[in-house]
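Worked Example 4.2. Read the sequence first, then its structure tokens.
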Amino acid sequence: MTSPGALLTFRLAPVVPFGKDRSLTQSGDSDLIDRLVRHGLGQGEARCYVGMLAQRAFKVSEVAAEAGLPRSRAYELIRSLVRFGLCTEVAGSRYARFRAVPPNEAIGRLEASKAEQARRHDLALSGLAQALALRASPSPDSGEEPLEMLRRRDQLLSVMATEVCQARDEVLTIVNASWEPTDCPGMRERLAAGVRFRTIFDRDALDHEPHRDWADALAGDGGFEVRVVDRVENLYLLVDRYVVLLNLTVPGSGSPGSHAESLLMRHAGLGQILYDAFERTWRQGVPFEQALAAGGTPVLVGATTSARGPAPPTGGGRAGNGRSAPSG
């Protein structure tokens, strides 16, 4: 018996959401998330993955609730996990359902992905060294570095915006579905000034609403075109055949996660090589609206239908700083 004034206390067991693997406590979830992040996943991806650890498949809304994310964001992250083989989509249901692979298997795949990314880095840097050795280039202006590594996503976006705002002739971009479109205010100003913008998407981008919305929003601006190819290997932005942003690691592309690693280079010879490579890929591409229609996706009103070939060279390219850069 207790005295009337005694205070009764109860120890409540941790509440585990319905369907969750009850062998994983909240502390265990946190440890696994940290481990996944150390192996390359982003926080959101890791939370979605842990939210699917159970002996059943989950709807997107359930994963979003587990991860504490908006449903639309959770869907994008789940699709990223599917691409990297960390979860699978279960067929035969009215709603899309997903199931995570076991943690040990997921860690193994992340380790293999990092090893493959390192191999691709080495190949890319070796190719750059050869390309730079083949062609001469004028020295950058005072205060400019010929080569700079960008390792933060915010830093990469800031540099991209700066270089786009200084474009004088043309901006070329090759991206895949992992790229997150952003509305760069300077882009519309450059379009109005007569700068041409051409972008190549991979076919997976057609399934992503942000990519369709971005293309549709800019389709009315003269000089803006998008084409689609089945797959892209090298991801880069090229400004005036001189300023190069070569993406070695893009969030969600070569490896999962939110890390970015890009090389910023100012080199006319390399710029011309990448320009030629872009033109070869561009000629193989399908205009954006045509690709949407062929894929069964609703056609966007106003989406670019231009199928004209690349514009003829306008003389020497222009450097991002405004000075002429000699071609080839």
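Now turn to a second chain, presented in exactly the same format:
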Amino acid sequence: MYWISTRHLTSCWIVSTKCQTTLNGHSKSLAVGVVDRLSDMSEIIRANTVLPAVRTPFTVRTADGLTLIGEIARPLDKPTGAILCLHPLPTAGGMMDSHLFKKAANRLPALAGISVVRFNTRGTASDAGRSEGHFDNGVGEGLDLQAMLSYCFDELQLTNLWVVGWSFGTDLALQHAKDPRHKGLILLSPPLRTSTPEQLMYWNSDSRPMIALIPEFDDYLPPAQARQRFSPIEHIELIAVDGAKHLWVGEPSVYRVLSEIVRRVAPERLPLPTQF
């Protein structure tokens, strides 16, 4: 087990909640399909920035007959890899549009060539729609994850795919993301709410990379406790993120998370720009 504590730089970020509807006089109209790149655009990337990508909604059928709602955001060119996003706890408001994953879909295709796949687990709703079924506390959701992984490889033909879980989504990844075709796990604010030591020990038989970002002020599993709870996994890399909280609110925290994702999926695209 590796333990890393680093403090991130924040001087490049300007935090804003102002809605940007035009860029240098050009209308910023975003719809499903190809969005034209504006060659003269040079704007600060803000919380509500949406960068060019090909965004396509889809549905997936699970082995137990449920239809799940999802969307893929692909780069316009030069793809480098992909991530499958597993959202936070639905009973606490988690969904495919939870802010980290929405921002990943809005930025990473253009900034890093990464395709971002998001979906609602069973019974979960967002602006894209409601997936069929009912919340099953991570049990039936294992079938959702298996269906999504098969869709990513068999239908979307994605390569260099990583599974990224956040909070509840980390337990789904640890318990169910055993498909041998993905490259590894990236865990954000893992609470280890339902994962048992025996389930963690499985990963000692799987040498794929596993990285966990642990916020300094996490409400459920702060760094000291995470180090102890994850001790059954010998090769996990734990990264304590100073000043961060469980929900990763604020542009500096978002930038850090997205940078750590890119560090694994497409390291050649670092550092991530703060303007586009």
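Notes for the reader: The domain at 2-7+40-268 is CATH 3.40.50.1820 (Rossmann fold). Confidence is low (pLDDT under 50) at residues 4-39.
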